[in-house]
Amino acid sequence: MLDKIKAGARAGRYRLVYFDEASFAASPPGQYGWSPRGKPHETEPLTHCRRSVLGALNYPDNSLFYQTVSGNITRADVIDFLTQVAR
């Protein structure tokens, strides 16, 4: 079935776009810590800058569209990106 879809996209009957999202952080989240006996466990939050990337590969002509976002991706970011790719 995928071969038929790819053939239709190559013939120009429709567009086939592979879409993905990935996020990266400069430092990992705090996963362990220690505390003196009898005291509650505490960890200091790590301040880091998170980057997110939206990417779409247009199958027939092998063109790549991408957008970077500082922080987390929202639904509005995805809708805006896919609207731009659809043009």
TrEMBL record:
Cited InterPro entries:
Tc1-like_DDE_dom (IPR038717)
| Organism superkingdom | Bacteria
Residue ranges of the Tc1-like transposase DDE domain? Answer: 15-86
By what name is this protein known?
A: Tc1-like transposase DDE domain-containing protein
Q: Per the UniProt entry, what species is this protein from, by scientific name?
A: Xenorhabdus nematophila (strain ATCC 19061 / DSM 3370 / CCUG 14189 / LMG 1036 / NCIMB 9965 / AN6)
